[in-house]
Amino acid sequence: MKKRTQRYLSIILALMFSLSALPCLAAFAYEEAAQEASAEEESVGEEVGKFAEGLSFAGYRYRADGNYFYVDQDKAWQGKYGYMRAYDLIAPYVLLEYDYVRVHFTYEGKDWMIQLWKGQYGLAFYGAETGVYYKNASDSEDTAATVYSHVSGDDMPWMQTALYHDPDLVGDYSEEFVTPYEQTWWSTGFKAGHLTREEPASELRQCGLITFKNEELANLFAEGLKSCGFTQAENGSVGIDSFSLSGPTVSYVWQDISDAENTMPIKIAVGTMLFLHFAAVMTAILVIVGGFMGMGLLLLLI
């Protein structure tokens, strides 16, 4: 009963993600102030940036160098509840439109899952994530409610995530941000703004660097990437949806591959149904109102 309650609670908390977009107000304020600041006001803009960096909301913080938000892993409430596939299934219906790739492998009695995300996060953000999780090894097939816990201690790799954006959809990708290279279980970055096309999120390109505690883990991750459709680069030249392997370090470029379900047909069908229901209700109201008005006019004429 306790585990079931925790799972339900974790799903509710995941749905609350979009509410945590409130800090974007600070980013908008800082960006606007920076754009309007004159040469004499540059020091004021720097102070605003430092102030914004000191703020924390629901585990999210702002980094002036790059003008993006990220998750402070030491204060991330999400880490207490792990991750399950149900989050990704629910996400499109709570304004979280992202692509994702899940890499699975087993190592020393643990089923590992390294997941990549990129896309639109609510109405206010777009960004990218890389999360590293595991659970006790099992022969049972995962379900939507199978919970993975984030890795900890020495199992946490060193990671860095860079995001590139092609807002005009012409193949010209420019850098949005590069996160620090640090030991973590969750590398994240979120920019204030909205994508030109939410689904799929191919106008975003995520470039990552992951250094594991040993080469065996790196090799297992590399094989997992191949299973997801990535190709291994030759001579270290990493192209789109490919990776390179060097000792315990894997670097990758992810753009077009996605395990995410295409929910647009469902949304169109639901939207059409809701519109037709709304139109039917409004028509009925107009008919009723028109009937009463007609009766009123008839009584006046009589």
Instruction: Quickly count the domains.
Output: 2
Rg calc: 24 Å
Mean pLDDT: 80
The fraction of residues in strands falls at 25-35%
Distance between the termini: 71 Å
Structure characterization notes:
The chain has helices at 2-15, 24-36, 42-53, 85-90, 215-227, 264-301, and strands spanning 56-57, 60-63, 68-71, 96-107, 110-121, 125-136, 149-150, 158-165, 174-178, 182-183, 186-192, 204-211, 231-232, 242-246, 249-254. The protein is of the alpha+beta class and 302 residues long. It folds into 2 domains: 74-254, no CATH class; 263-302. A hairpin with a 2-residue loop joins strand 14 and strand 15. The longest helix has 38 residues, at 264-301. It is elongated, with a radius of gyration of 24 Å. The N and C termini lie far apart (71 Å).
Spell out the key features of this protein:
32% helix, alpha+beta, 15 strands, 302 residues, five-stranded antiparallel beta sheet, seven-stranded mixed beta sheet
Task: Give the gist of this structure.
With 302 residues, this protein is an alpha+beta fold. The chain is built from 6 helices and 15 strands.
Helix/strand layout:
Layout: H1 2-15, H2 24-36, H3 42-53, E1 56-57, E2 60-63, E3 68-71, H4 85-90, E4 96-107, E5 110-121, E6 125-136, E7 149-150, E8 158-165, E9 174-178, E10 182-183, E11 186-192, E12 204-211, H5 215-227, E13 231-232, E14 242-246, E15 249-254, H6 264-301
Parallel strand pairs: 13-14
Antiparallel strand pairs: 1-2, 2-3, 4-5, 5-6, 6-7, 6-11, 8-9, 8-10, 8-12, 12-15, 14-15
